[in-house]
UniProtKB/TrEMBL annotation, chains A, B:
The keyword Ion transport does not apply. It comes from the Eukaryota. Homodimer. Belongs to the alliinase family. Keywords: Pyridoxal phosphate. Residues 7-318 form the Alliinase C-terminal domain. GO terms for biological process: amino acid metabolic process. GO terms for molecular function: carbon-sulfur lyase activity; transaminase activity. InterPro entries: Alliinase_C, Ethylene_sulfur-biosynth, PyrdxlP-dep_Trfase, PyrdxlP-dep_Trfase_major, PyrdxlP-dep_Trfase_small. This is Alliinase C-terminal domain-containing protein.
Length: 327, 327
């Protein structure tokens, strides 16, 4: 009963924000979206009989590293991870179930990705944890078969380990519920209570307007500063994100992604992580995201002091570029 | 650092109670002991190469049902559950890794079980969640390679989902840590905070004496009443548990188990669950514990009202026995 009321609060929040269709959908709690990722893989692949080949789990590059590390660690007779999604585009053998992780907006590059695998054997797990107005324009409510959200990316309380899945199909919901039940016997009630309180606080700020306006302003400014830094660089570039109409803000809004997806453009800078490391900047290696090592991810989700320091070091690095020195 | 202090509190508690050797051991948090069960299976089986046969996971009957349901659901190339442990006693093929769940005291029958599988290929996961003075005599500190505990069975806060593993081997600890990390990205900090406070409260009551004396008294009385009820029955019997010297209470203490393992003795009462159900008594079927269906488990962990009602209905059932009517 308490869980039912909480689920209705979550539905109300999605309705106010306009980022997901949740009425008439099943909601399942998880220990962060992390637990729900493998619960979904498990549920989508457990249906088929053991004589079929295992379901193949895939994601377009660049993808969130945990999809690979988690799926590989928990590999079963029913599913396995493969790195090369392009082999399966328009090329399904008709027998193998395909499970695609779609992060939208994407971690690391903030793009509003859509599933690339189509056909009756292809299923998508939409990781929607960044689909909130502080990180992205919300052009329309998402209505995917499986959508994942988390308190971590909504209010920042990653340590509470609380996420939820929005699921269309009842049988799939039941299988995911069994997974969570046998994995951890449900979700910590302490974490649930914390998340319930947090969502109530989000509502109190002018029905979410306060936190999302605050979050968007902070993240937009960081993105602008970062772009200004790289605008004079030929050595480094970051992804382009277009301004877009947002149904929550009722206007075209400027980009404000959680991460910068940085590319080292020089032929010799194959190890972009090393290039930044030498300048005392910690990034995450592109290879973790299935990409070339001339890419890295920089997190813009940090304290202001920490961000200012990052920007200062990046500015220094850019100003040292030969072409700029000689300008 | 905070986690380190918390771990030292846990070590201090085990030392005061005298139920486990934890100094010089690794401690890993989990979302209840539930998560740590499969983490241990995973870690114990992930070491061997894929050309070997999968590790076989076993438990002596009667065993806690989750060992089977969880291991079957998460079955991988590396491990599988088998029901018949006796096939493997003194009969190891020398190639197959054996992983034995040992619950001590046992759920459902409260016995201080020891591993029955021996030899270099046999590993045991000791589920010690009931090894506290309210449920059992503590003859000596346990010093098993892997021991699991939980706040659920220590203070009753099952909903917090907080457990811990005490592990001797560093490499095994690291593999279990990776499992928890990729499964749920660690344990909810809200649950950790709750558990930390609970353990501090346990200490406040005369270094644990208060809660364990209270718990033992309540559970002992329930066990005595139940035994009195069945002492006049030929239709039903419950397990025998001997009084034993307890290092915590410094005296021989009377039994006070968490569950009664009830047997329907009459030839025709093959469905013991059904016999009790007809008398409005809810039990758990013996078949779930790998046992004959003439066994059931009755939980003594319930509110006093609920226990009194259970006892009243059991008394009625026993008094209806033909032999008693005719006495």
């Amino acid at each position: 009963m308490a869980a039912g009321l909480f689920k209705n609060n979550i539905r109300k929040l999605h309705q106010v924000v306009g980022n997901a269709v949740t009425f008439g959908r099943y909601i399942l709690f998880g220990e962060g979206s992390t637990q729900l990722l493998n619960a979904a893989v498990h549920a989508l692949s457990s249906n088929h009989n053991h004589s079929s080949p295992p379901s193949v789990v895939l994601a377009s590059v660049p993808y969130y590293p945990l999809y690979e590390s988690q799926t590989v660690l928990f590999e079963s007779k029913d599913f396995k991870f493969e790195r090369n999604i392009s082999l399966w585009k328009n090329n399904s053998d008709g027998r193998t179930n395909l499970i695609e992780f779609v992060t939208s907006p994407n971690n690391p590059d903030g793009q509003l990705n859509k599933a690339v695998l189509q056909g009756p054997n292809a299923k998508a797990i939409y990781d929607r944890v960044y689909y909130w107005p502080h990180f992205t324009a919300v052009p329309a409510p998402a209505d995917d078969d499986i959508m994942l959200f988390s308190i971590s990316k909504l209010t920042g309380h990653a340590g509470s380990r609380f996420g939820w899945a929005v699921i269309k199909d009842e049988a799939l919901f039941e299988r995911m519920k069994t997974y969570v039940s046998l994995n951890t016997m449900g979700v910590s009630r302490d974490a649930q209570l914390r998340a319930l309180k947090l969502i109530n606080v989000v509502f109190q700020g002018r029905r979410g307007r306060e936190i999302f306006e605050f979050g968007h302003t902070i993240m937009r400014k960081r993105w602008e500063k970062l772009n200004r830094t790289f605008s004079v660089s030929t050595r480094f570039s970051v992804q382009k994100i277009a301004s877009q109409y947002c149904n929550f803000f009722h206007r075209v809004r400027e980009p404000s992604p959680a991460y910068a997806w940085l590319k080292c453009e020089r032929e010799e800078d194959k190890d972009c992580y090393g290039v930044l490391k030498a300048a005392n900047i910690i990034s995450r290696k592109g290879s973790l995201f299935g990409a070339e090592s001339r890419y890295v991810r920089l997190s813009l989700l940090r304290t202001q002091d920490d961000f200012d320091l990052l920007l200062q070091r990046l500015n220094k690095l850019v100003l040292e570029e030969d072409n700029i020195k000689s300008m």
